[in-house]
Write a structure and sequence with these properties.
The protein is α/β, with parallel strands linked by helices. It contains 6 helices and 14 strands. Bound molecules: nickel (II) ion (NI) and manganese (II) ion.
């Protein structure tokens, strides 16, 4: 049984006990006022990073190093990670990789990379057959329709906090384009500039789309 645990902000832990596989995306825990886990609290096989802003790169190097996990990100960030001695899988937007749990594909995100010459990315994953989309930090963009049509998304994790990313109103439009079964809002209420109302987002999405919204408090999990 696969599970998504929201660790706060944009950090999520995706695991499957039966297979003993887990991965963490954007593990910003130290200094994260929302964090409900410490970098040493869990073990992972993979560390995925959407872009190098500190609220996403976070504890990624430490976690990957301690777990001897494979570090997956865009080429620029993966090259930087390899200089820290990590085992890396450099990728780029449009590219996919087969891994023991399924596959990961890097998709567009409209945002800064946080590293010279880079691009921000989102992740589309097939995790033991569950299609999962983590949008990273991004504005709303029309090609979300293309991402939603690549594979039927079971769970989409979308930023709703505004200021640095799309706000909760644009995120409703993103849900229309992506048509996921379930949406988990992320990247909001960590700090005052990204305040959002997840209950209103849930009402707006569920009244205008076929998708359901599951609001996870930091530390809570969703079973797939
Ligand atoms: Ni960012
Ligand atoms: Mn961010």
């Amino acid at each position: 049984m696969a599970q998504i645990r929201f660790l706060g902000h944009a950090a999520v832990l995706i695991s499957d006990k039966q297979h003993g596989t887990s991965l963490v995306i954007d593990p910003f825990l130290s200094g994260n006022p929302q964090a409900q886990a410490k970098p040493n609290d869990f073990n992972v096989n993979y560390v995925l990073v959407t872009h190098a802003h500190s609220d996403h790169l976070g504890d990624a190097y430490d976690i990957a190093n301690r777990n001897k996990a494979l570090f997956i990100s865009t080429n620029e960030i993966a090259q930087e990670a390899s200089t820290k001695g990590l085992q890396v899988r450099p990728m780029h937007i449009g590219g996919s990789a087969k891994l023991d749990f399924g596959w990961v594909k890097l998709v567009q995100a409209v945002h800064g990379s946080g590293i010279a010459g880079g691009l921000a990315a989102g992740f589309l994953l097939s995790f033991y057959g569950h299609i999962i989309y983590h949008a990273g930090d991004t504005a709303l963009f029309g090609d979300m329709k293309m991402i939603g049509d690549m594979a039927p998304i079971a769970v989409a994790m979308l930023p709703i906090g505004g200021n640095y990313t799309m706000d909760q109103n644009d995120a409703v439009k993103a849900v229309e384009l992506l048509h996921p079964a379930t949406v988990v809002p992320i990247h909001y209420n960590t700090w005052p500039p990204i305040a959002a109302d997840p209950q209103r987002f849930k009402k707006d999405v569920e009244s205008s789309t076929q998708s359901r919204v599951v609001i996870l408090a930091p530390g809570e999990s969703l079973e797939l």
